[in-house]
Specification:
The strands form 15 sheets. Strands 14-15-16-17-18 form a five-stranded antiparallel β-sheet, with no helix packed on it. The protein has a five-stranded antiparallel β-sheet with strand order 27-28-29-33-30, with no helix packed on it. The chain has a four-stranded antiparallel β-sheet with strand order 1-60-59-58, with no helix packed on it. It has about 1250 residues and is α+β, with helices and mostly antiparallel strands. It contains 26 helices and 60 strands. The protein is elongated, with a radius of gyration of 38 Å. Keywords: Cell projection, Cytoplasm, Cytoplasmic vesicle, Cytoskeleton, Golgi apparatus, Nucleus, Phosphoprotein, Repeat, WD repeat.
Length: about 1250
Amino acid sequence: MIPYTVNIKLAARTLTGTLHLQNKTAVDWGWQGLIAQGCHSSILIIDPKTSQTIQVLERHKANVVKVKWSRENYYHNQSSPYCLRLASGDASGKIIVWDVVSGTAHCEIQEHSKPIQDLEWLWNQDASRDLLLAIHPPNYIVLWNGDTGTKLWKKSYAENILSFSFDPFDPSNMALLTSEGIVFITDFSHSKPPGSAGKKVYIASPHASPAHTKPAPAATPAPTGAKKALNKVKVLITNEKPTAEAVTLNDCLQLSYLPSKRNHMLLLYPREILILDLELSQTVGVVAIERSGVPFIQVIPCAQRDALYCLHENGCITLRVCRSTTTQEEATDPEQSTHELLYDLRSQCDAIRVTKTVRPYRMVICPVNENSAALMVSDGRAMLWELKAHTGRAVTNQSSGLSPLYTPISFCGSPLGTNQKRIQDLSLNSMIGQTLIAGEALPPSSIQQEVQLKFLLTGLLSGLPLPPFAIRMCPPLTTKNINHYQPLLAIGTSNGSVLVYNLTSGLLHKELSVHSCEVRGIEWVSLTSFLSFATSAQNNMGMVRNELQHVDLLTGRCFAFRGERGNDEPPIEMIKVSHLKQYLVVVFRDKPLELWDTRTGTLLREMAKNFPTVTALEWSPSHNLKSLKKKQMAAREAMARQTVSDAEQSSVESSVISLLQDAESKSETSQAISAREHFVFTDTDGQVYHITVEGNTVKDGARIPPDGSMGSIACIAWKGDTLVLGDVDGNLNFWDLKARLSRGIPTHRGWVKKIRFAPGKGNQKLLVMYTDGAEVWDTKEVQMVSSMRIGRNVNYRVLDIDWCTSDKVVLASDDGCIRVLEMAMKSASYRMDEQDLTDPVWCPYLLVPRAALTLKTFLLLQPWSGTFTMDITQVDYNEKDEIKGLIQEQLNAMSNDLKSVLQDPELSLLQRCLLVSRLFGDESDLHFWTVASHYIQSFAQARLSTPDGQSEGTQPPPQNHLDICNDILCESSYFQKFQLDRVHLQEVKRSSYEHTKKCADQLLLLGQTDRAVQLLLETSADNSSYYCDSLKACLVTTITSSGPSQSTIKLVATNMIANGKLAEGVQLLCLIDKAADACRYLQTYGEWNRAAWLAKVRLNPAESSDVLKRWAEQLCSPQVNQKSKAILVLLSLGCFYKVGEMLHSMRYFDRAALFIEACLKYGVMEADDSSNKLIKSAFLEYARLLRSLGLREGAALWASRAGSAGEQLMEELFQGEGSMPGSVLGEDKVELGQESTE
């Protein structure tokens, strides 16, 4: 017979449980679309869309305290591919940078031995994306190269640093939250450590605010606490160190810059969130919690809209959206028009039940779409909430005073087509429209609908409960049960329930509540049923309540196996089921053992009082079932023959045999035969007894005297002709029963807790568990195969062991995890692509680099056919079938909504580029296409409305503008309104002379002279600058445009600038409308951002365009190296040809070709002699790129549009086609290509 082997594939994996307190901050949701979460010393990688754990990384020896995904803010090609890179820091100060797909470490970094406080990848320069900034306690900031692990620089500060936050608009600014206040650094750069110690500011505790003092007298209706509190909390930030009693500083939980608008920062306190305007260092908004409200733990500001996700102590996530400061409200209610940023509660999810052990730890939100959040709970649960938008006119509650939110009118950056498909919930900015600012009218368009936001729980991952665990694997796979075998692992827990996990998928198969106290042991009696026992705590007599339950998995039926017995008796020590699953031995601590029949559930024998105390017991694998069956078969055959007369013998022969086989199979299921089985056990003296059981007769067999070298025997294992004994002193004794030899081996590891033989015929491997770890032995050779020991190669204690297949072991450990390991017992990170996942996961990062790029190209453009297909096999794509299969799996994993939108012929090229960059989580692509798509469309519209040709910098229609989170890239008109609105707010909030002075300066720059004069005249007479300010006020009011006064002022201004008074000189120049000169001076002195700001708010389009172009040149210079930012600036000026050239010269070939294609489509770039060279070379390079990916049809198509060089490429593409029938294919393609150029 051919040996019949079946490989039931069990991946090495880790089932994780509850989190450690140190894991609290270790969670991150990356642009790649996956969540990383620290759990003790391992890191889980979770896919939030299907809520599955798809990888567990194990290498840290201490608890993981921080994890950070690398940013995707770079152009992706084959040399810098889409890859899953994660940095993690642990409590011993070690940082590991992982390649997540293969589960291996790129590099390991160690500086000090204290827990890492914070980690962040630098994302803002084009030179390198490997830089990792870390805080090493107490006060060091170190910049590492995360690829090689080399230290670039290190800087220490005076106070302990708790965390840091980068300014998303200006990478040279960062803020450190220290134990005493905040340190602002303005000269951060990757090339050298910050030079200065930073500007230190102290935060006066907000508890001085009236919100926390006694309520107002009842005569006046008390205004809501939070709103009034704010008008009174004037200064919160001071440069002087506050007095000791005034401050309990460290209750500031978190600081972060707002990514939705420049120079704003939020500070989080348990009961309020403060929004600061950093230009004034002044609070401009507050979100406070009423007295009875639940305090905050954490807040995450959004970039796409001015909104905050807040996590509260009861696990409730709330979304607050900034209220529009439109002018309509002010007229209705003068009381409400106290200017302030108000964040209205728009949605909240359900809270969780918080107990001593269950509390919310952290929340993360999806950085790409900002419309889903994940909540990590201390018991190992991950709750995945999605924000859903419901449109339609809801009954707005007038008393709540909330103005309605509207849906945006565009989808993926373009106005919606009439019957175009869309996904409302694609991202936050496709769910709610922009926050309006003062001076803007509501768009009258009828398409906008009111929208209600709701949180929906879309996924839940739960971990194992708290240890200790008792584990047992179901009976092994055999040739008989191969058709219906499932590798199930039963886990008994401390609260009395039994969890059954399916180890192929790693998912919970059933959770059964079986006992009322801790489960001590489990034994399977068939593939679908098991016995488990639990013992309650001892009473003062040393007696307990024993529960022994029989559980049927298929039905969930569960009954007490020992009937009424079990109250007030000594505790059960162990239960052992015989090899044929016929008998069960129950061993008690101080009471003779019981022998039961498992099939009928009857007690066969309760041993006599003088029966020896059992220390270890094991059933023998030998039995007489085969010989019994032969005898029975023969007897049956004889009986059948007697009943049939000889004459009919031959005709009946066959039917008799089938009858017999039938009878036999029936008898097997009902097991009427009772085969003889034996067990051995040892007593306290080490004597070995041998007992035979057959039916209901029990016979005592031979006794073997104790072995002098062994101590008290703790466990026995028996397989084939090998019997192994383990004792409390760590000796193993191997008996060869055939050769009658015994061999003792001291392991010097202390008490042998358990020994188990591996399943499988002839497999003589043995798994041994000690108090401090485990070993695998080969009993044939009598030598150790592998070993693990706490403190040496692992940092957890092993609680229980078992084999799950013939070559894999499963260990339960005290860190709450259960690990399936190879026999070598090394750590369990595995390759993600070798895994069997129940649901397909959309994550292009899991593909090999080439395949990910192919998938992207495939989704972006399929111009070779009239329709858009989602089946890669329909495309001429020469690649290995397995890779094709993987790409197709990714396509199949997309949601149906997405597929239908991508296949919709109405989806324009620009929308498609935006959608695909969102799907891939490609940060750099997303920023580029957002700005490009907006300005290509607005310049195209402007050209239609002004037919006299191109006028650079013309303003697009006002209702559709870029979000303010794009800052300087926004349209000037909108940007100006925003700045005025902001100064107005600052004015209301100012509380000191310093603030007033700053406001007046801003107003002068913005050209608001009347208001500025009012502020200047407010200066009190005892102020040292009183005289100066009064004269300045006079000057501002009397400036006339006469020649001499202008020239004088200009001369004074230039002198001031030359003598280091830059700001004052610039102000004077702005007074006489020489803002263009002012910008030039600012740029000369390196104030590039300030110059760009001034150009935006003061200059006409042509002048402003000059200033910004100079800035773009500076950004491209090798010292600054921010070409990608320069490209965005040029896009906002409409310099599309220059952008095309730059993309091409930077070798961003696919982006360049698609961008030029879009420009030609929208008519903002003409294909004439000047531009043809660029267009053709861009298309040619894209064709080459497609050819290198293996997409030949696409390559042929683009090559056919690239002129003479393209024809050459076409020939190369189709020259090796000797095998193909003729070159019809080639001609065909060329025709297709020509059609599309026409």
